[in-house]
Amino acid sequence: xxxxxxxxxxxxxxxxLTDDLLGRHCDxxxxxxxxDDGTAHTPGLWGRLAETGLVSALVAEEHGGAGLTxxxxxxxxxxxGRHAVPxxxxxxxxxxxxxxxALPGPVADTWLPRIAAGEAIAVVRLEDxxxxxxxxxxxxxxxxxxxxxSIRAFARExxxxxxxxxxxxxxxxxxxxxxxxxxLMGHDGAVVxxxxxxxxxxxxxxxxxxxxxLLELTVEYVAVxxxxxxxxxxxxxxxxxxxxxAVLVDMATAAALSAFDxxxxxxGSRRAAAAKAYAGDAxxxxxxxxxxxxxxxxxxxxxxxxxxxxxxxGLAASYGTTTALRRDxxxxxxxxxxxxxxx
Length: 343
What we know:
Blueprint: H1 3-25, H2 28-37, H3 43-51, H4 74-82, H5 89-102, H6 106-116, E1 122-125, E2 133-134, E3 141-145, E4 150-155, E5 159-164, E6 173-178, E7 183-187, H7 189-224, E8 226-227, E9 230-231, H8 236-261, H9 268-294, H10 305-317, H11 322-342
Helix pairs in contact: 1-4, 4-7, 5-6, 5-7, 7-8, 7-9, 7-10, 8-9, 9-10, 9-11
């Protein structure tokens, strides 16, 4: 069996594992209970993710993990988005673990085994990309990645965390202000750049998964909602709108998954930014179409559509907006073309 075949099989098995776990432990009742309790992250669900090996997937074997690559987890992130999981998987199991794994030393030796065991939450602050840090209210460790390439680790007691009202209560946000010196892990611009790409591509995967769920909920609803004695899904205009949205969501999914798989390629940063921007567009369209086709019930608290409406709006505004990412890509392209012409 070839290596690509093995990777594809591993990814399928990881997605099946994720879907099975979330189907049993992250249903609508669970999500509503989290909102009622005012607490998104729970040790119970996070512990189950850790027990299955999903949290430690990117952790090296010597620290208690599986030593997999990001390419193994693109489908897992898509599934997490589809289930609106209220846990910092991208922030801890992908971003923080990748930073710690790239900078071996006392900080990594201390925290990676704890993260792998599901005993600690770590988040990453990426300056302009994260003025508000997701799940910082639950974090035991904050990794601060500066534009100059310096990377510092701050324990909970070395930071001030000020919660900020978030549109999506299942994805809490906070301002993080260091009050201690922290531990300098090193200066590495390449690690900072790679983490940015992982954040963008990972958020794109989550967005695509949430958009997919919005599409599924809408198709399910128009198939049973009747008007003039017929399901509204039988009307041509509704069919066309659903079909157009399905194409957008499929393309966003393809772009997001491939970008996350390619973060270490030479053009990985551009692909990640483009995928996040495209996923943001698809999510915005999914929000509008889902609300319109659900009619009045889509606006109600009792119906569950709002869980995904808020999730895609929050994710679209995180790690760079569609407008900002497209502007940066355009500037980069213009600079490259100008340089080529001068040469």
